[in-house]
Amino acid sequence: MYGFFYCASDGIIAIEAIHTSTSTMNTHLTRCSIPRRSLSVSLFSSCSPRRAFSNGTIEENDIVLLERINAKRAPSRAEPILSPPLSPRGHVVLSKGSDKLRGEWIIGKQLRETVRSRRGLDYRLLRPSLAEYTDLSPRLVTPIYSSDAVATLALLDLHPTTPGTKDEDGDRKLEIFEAGTGHGAFTLNLSRAVHAANTTPPTREKDFEYGSKYQTWRSNRRAVIHTLDLEPRYSAHAENMIKSFRKAMYYHNIDFHTGTIPSYLSARFAETNGAPFLDHAILDLPNCHEYIEIVAKALKPDGSLLVFVPQITQVNKCVLHCKEKDIPLFLDKVVELGGAMAVGGREWDVRPVRTRAFLAGIAEREVKKGIIRQDGGEIEADKEDDVDVAEKEHEVAEVEIGNEVEGSSKESGEGEWEMVCRPKVGGKIQGGGFVGQWRKMTVQTTAKEKWSNRRPSHDPEDIPDQEVIDLINKKIGQYQD
């Protein structure tokens, strides 16, 4: 076959190919014409190029968004309708009544064209965005809605490098663990965020070695999302939902698992000889605090743990659990989510603190140990001091105490810790669930380093000790007077 192209006088690039048959020695001419502006793409494809997402033609198995339009061809206030994968004999149900659209009426049309239903209602054909797809697709469980997913995903601050990029991480694989697949909406958002790190998977078309090639490709992926759910039917539904978006565009970055968190992570620990292997982890399930310890062991240093919960009290449980178990995680931030006003959420101040009554008790004990009458009797505190302490019994000291790392002393007992739990002043107002972000520390990280990294103005070695010292000096001054 020989080919050449030339520019015609009407501004059309013409491509001609001469096909010669060696058996019959017959020659025939094939010609196709394309606009000059498409030359950069079409010169390297056949006259019937493989379909791209940008060509605008709706084909079988596509999913479209149907937007109701009024008589003036303007969008109406009715909620758009997400179609199932289109088939010529299938239907798109438009209402609970009998109004439908046949798939063959939609297939072959261009995006933004209109189609009329049986009842004479007009709909504009659109390609659904990721947010519209996850919010409107059929579900078995409540999804993480698109606005919340975007705000939560921003906390991870993912910047995957493309294949072949020379960076400080080299060929290190990015692994993210999600417990609680549910609807799969957040899983799909995660996959899109890391999609650039992987090469294009092999296709099935006329490839008898597809199975082995695909498995080789999977083992060489540079970014993987491990998503786990306890219910097999939820996992299967989420897998099908993700596979149906843009013809499985982001499906191949994900590994779906069913079972419990301890069983899955224990099996992975056996493969890695107990070494941490996760860059980030997300928990979206009831009783998240029960799984924080084992997930923290699987996290690499400085890896993020996101806990998605509907109530702020559940964040409190996680904070206290990390404190009681000496889990090497420190709370970076707590954000309130919701779609009320703006993306980003309202940041909350959640931390364990010592009460002033507890600190006053320490001061009282120190004074009694250090100041004794010459006759051996102990000095009694003034009644006014007792009243002062009683009035502040429920007042919370602005003293931040972090989660000590493994090997640190455990001096705290029950009843000594209180929780600061309030919105930060000046934050964005929103309603909805809450996301707590913890970061993995190294064993060598000290409490001072940990809190100075989070809030440089709060040094735990200065503030708590100084608080006690001030109270002791106050008591000593009163007794000496």
Automatic annotation (TrEMBL):
EC number: 2.1.1.220
Enzyme class: transferase
Residue ranges of the region described as Disordered: 445-465
Gene Ontology cellular-component terms listed: mitochondrion; tRNA (m1A) methyltransferase complex
Gene3D superfamilies: Vaccinia Virus protein VP39
PROSITE patterns: SAM_TRM61
Skewed-composition ranges (Basic and acidic residues): 447-461
GO biological process, one term: tRNA methylation
InterPro entries per record: SAM-dependent_MTases_sf, tRNA_MeTrfase_Gcd14
One Gene Ontology MF term: tRNA (adenine(58)-N1)-methyltransferase activity
PANTHER family: TRNA (ADENINE(58)-N(1))-METHYLTRANSFERASE (PTHR12133), TRNA (ADENINE(58)-N(1))-METHYLTRANSFERASE, MITOCHONDRIAL (PTHR12133:SF1)
Protein name: tRNA (adenine(58)-N(1))-methyltransferase catalytic subunit TRM61
